[in-house]
Amino acid sequence: MRIEVTFNCDKGAKIDFNYNHNLSRLIMESLFDNKSAMFHKGKPFKYYTFSQLYFSHYEISGDKIVNLGEEVHWYVSSPNPFFIDGLVKGLTKMGCYPMGQGEFEFKQVRILDDPEFTNDMEFTCMSPITISSMGRGAKRELYCRIENKCFVENLRYDLVQKYYYLYNSFPKNERLEIIFDKNYLENKKRTSRLIDYNGVKVLGYMVPFVVKGSPDLIRVGYSCGFGERNNNGFGMVKVWHRS
After folding, report:
1. Residue 203: how many CB atoms within 10 A of its CB?
2. Where are the beta strands (DSSP E) in the chain?
3. For the purposes of burial, counting CB atoms within 10 Å of the CB of 150, is it exposed (0-12), middle (13-18) or buried (19 or more)?
4. Using CA atoms, how far apart are residues 166 and 84, in angstroms rounded to an integer?
5. Does the structure show a pLDDT above 50 at 137?
6. pLDDT (tens digit, 9 = 90+) per residue, 152-177?
7. How many other CB atoms are found less than 10 A from the CB of residue 141?
8. Where in this chain does the record put each CRISPR associated protein Cas6 C-terminal domain (predicted)?
């Protein structure tokens, strides 16, 4: 289930580049009084993802985004309808939320239809995809580089684990092939993103890709996010219609 949230924002308001943790906090505060939406199987529910912010008009000033339009759009996705319902109710009740040097005023929400999930689809990123690999003897997470084999392998494994957590079984078909757009990688100046999430540096990539294989795993990636740290605003994708 996916929603588009629209906020009003004052012209001239300045937002930090690294705003992911602010949006994570917005979700938590919206759900504070709705425990059924915050927990699953007795544990905190983390199977959701959200996009970067989409400004109708903006400019960059130093390390800030300066809003020049009136509306800001934001997308949230989860396979749990109770989570989405609780979030919408919380946002409506909250009304306004401070964001950087400005304030977001909740305006409206729109429920988006899911695409038809097939065994061959093409996506583009709405927030960076990140995946890690604990190296032998490593004391901290090592983020996989998109050019390394572990990047795709770990994305597939992560989707299988998400499916098992959500449905208490493994998918009948675990095959999945992910092919990132080589032309985009070669011609785009910057495809990587180093996000500062409340003091933690997270490496991710925003590159269109084709995915082939299990529609069930593709659906999980679309609804929960591809890769890790989805509930921190990583791994959201949308169907890409190549021009």
Report:
1. 18
2. 2-9, 14-16, 39-40, 43-44, 49-50, 54-55, 58-61, 64-67, 71-77, 96-99, 102-112, 120-125, 176-180, 192-197, 200-205, 209-213, 237-239
3. middle
4. 16
5. no
6. 999 999 999 999 999 999 999 999 99
7. 16
8. 113-239
Q: Are 75 and 51 in contact (CB under 8 A)?
A: yes
One fold for 2-112 and 120-239: yes
**Which residues, in sequence order, are CB contacts of 170 under 8 Å at separation 6+?**
160, 163, 164
Residue closest to 52 by CA, chosen among 81, 22, 28, 32: 22
Q: Tokens 């934001």 label which residue?
A: 74
Q: Which long-range contacts (CB under 8 A, 24 or more apart) does 33-38 make?
A: 33/90, 34/86, 34/89, 34/90, 36/82, 36/86, 37/80, 37/82, 37/83, 37/85, 37/86, 37/87, 38/86
The domains of the chain are located at 2-112, 120-239
Q: Which residue has the tokens 């785009």?
A: 188
Query: Longest Cα pair distance anywhere in the chain, in angstroms?
Result: 52
CB-facing half-sphere around the CA of 32: CA atoms within 13 A: 8
By percentage, how much of the chain surpasses pLDDT 70? 93
The whole-angstrom separation of Cα 240 and Cα 87 is 27
For residue 53, give Cα distances in angstroms to 5, 126, 131, 145: 10, 9, 22, 25
Domain topology for 2-112: Alpha-Beta Plaits (3.30.70)
Instruction: At 232, list the tokens.
Output: 């921190």
pLDDT, tens digit, for every residue of 57-84? 999 998 899 999 999 999 999 999 989 9
